[in-house]
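FAQ: What does the model actually see?

It sees only this:
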Amino acid sequence: MTGNRTGTTTRSTWRNSGTWRNWAGTVTAEPARMVSPASVAEVAAAVRAAAEDGLRVKAVGTGHSFTSAAATDGVLIRPDLLTGIQRIDRAAGTVTVAAGTPLKRLNAALAREGLSLTNMGDITEQTVAGATSTGTHGTGRDSASIAAQIRALELVTADGSVLSCSAEENPEVFAAARIGLGALGVVTAITFAVEPVFLLTAREEPMTFDRVTAEFDQHVAENEHFEFYWFPHTGNCNTKRNNRSAGPAAPPGRVGGWIEDELLSNGAFQVACSLGRAVPATIPALARVSSRALSARTYTDIPHKVFTSPRRVRFVEMEYALPREAVVGALREVRAMVERSPLKISFPAEIRTAPADDIALSTASGRETAYIAVHLYRGTPHRSYFTAVERIMTAHGGRPHWGKIHTRDAAYLAEAYPRFGEFTALRDRLDPDRLFGNDYLRRVLGD
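And it is asked to produce this:
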């Protein structure tokens, strides 16, 4: 089908089927048509048109999920024209932004207004709706995921109606839709809590595996944001502590920052990963070199320049959320498994934390949480490694990240999430015919 549907404007772009691929190249889809609506009215019209034609609907962001959460053979809604800040309420401390706005553009725009999110993840390519719908998070002792900073959102539901929800308006929808997996409707706008921009001092420091795991609880307690990376085949880790600072700002020098963030973290690492994929026997030696390449440094800057980093080396990833008290033991099990196996792992594992939150399908829902994320260079066979890690994670009651590779199904997840039934009941009410369904949602939520 080409042309405009009734109820759309000439700005809404409809295209015949084409191939959509995610960032990592792990998922492709052949939708019957793609549409790039420029307003909530055009989203609603696209949803109604799809229902009339018997086609399912999925909204997609920038494709940074490793799962097929956004894949469809029906109508694929692209976010290209749903961008920009719609409203800033300084008195309330909120900003309302269109759902397709990339996080990097939001962060830059907020900084120009003297504002900031409280916490964020380490990649900013995602759209705000894509990131929040899959539970994207950073690390924090007291501040939680990006979705936990949502104060209201706008949702187009299966009948084409527009639903506004917050803690005061449609609170039962708000409780679930902040991390909705695209199962409840199409998010068209999000209102975030923001605060006056502040400074963070980052302290990055190499540390041994034995020391950082022995002192993990201490580091979490003493720092607002703590994370570390462990390099498989070594006893080496890199730690990062971010804490608020009175200043002055002291960003990394242009040359030193380029060496650390581009030459070593991206350029040299890309070469090492490519060599390791071609000749796996070299990986342990390369890991020892890589784990010692980054030196200790301290710098102070505004939040999005401290929390986030360029990630130009493409990879595949699995991440599990564990009860915080279980994470050190689980990580030690992962290390022991790697050491006794023939696996050759070129990418570090990342460990972060989050406080408990009140979102139904948040990986931190109702419990203090720590995360173990494992990665492999794109194109490297990952099944053996991820299966072995997943076995350890599930033994500790782990919850998989919704946008990262895992094999869990609705039966497992219903046990892992106390409020799982609350979410699926709401889905039954808002989308009884599964207009927003796909194979991934059928597996993780059931029919």
